[in-house]
Amino acid sequence: MEIKKCKSLDEARKEIDKLDEQIVDLIATRNAYIKQLAHFKNSIDEIKAEDRISDVINRVRARAIEQGLSPNLINELYIKMIDAMVDSEVAEFKNAKNF
To answer: Among 60, 61, 72, 75, which has the minimal tally of Cβ within 10 Å of its Cβ?
Structure first.
């Protein structure tokens, strides 16, 4: 990704604001796919797939390192995001299965 060379504080902040919007949009898209997963699973235990969570965390930590980011920061962000999305998926599963 090419980083724009900003000429002022205001310009840099506007670029950050644009990125924040994109990040939120991507998280919303991710969550929409997570909700779809609920329809392919047979139990709440299947939703809380620790092996899959571990794989995701390992993959994004490696990507963070490639991008020169703190893998611990990415780890913490993803743990929080995954926990919230698991709750979302469980709710979707219960609604789909009429629990």
So the answer is: 72
Question: Rounded to the nearest 5°, which phi and psi values hold at 41?
Answer: -110, 155
Dig out the tokens for 92 from the structure: 């979707």
Count of residues in the chain: 99
Q: What is the DSSP letter of 2?
A: P
Read off the pLDDT band of 99 (50, 70, 90): low
pLDDT per position as a tens digit, 33-51: 999 999 999 999 999 999 9
Residue 8 corresponds to which tokens in the numbers above?
């002022």
Alpha-carbon gap, residue 80 to 23, rounded angstroms: 15
**Measuring CA to CA, how many Å separate 34 from each of 2, 9, 70, 92?**
30, 37, 25, 9
| Rounded Cα gap, residues 34 and 82, in angstroms | 10
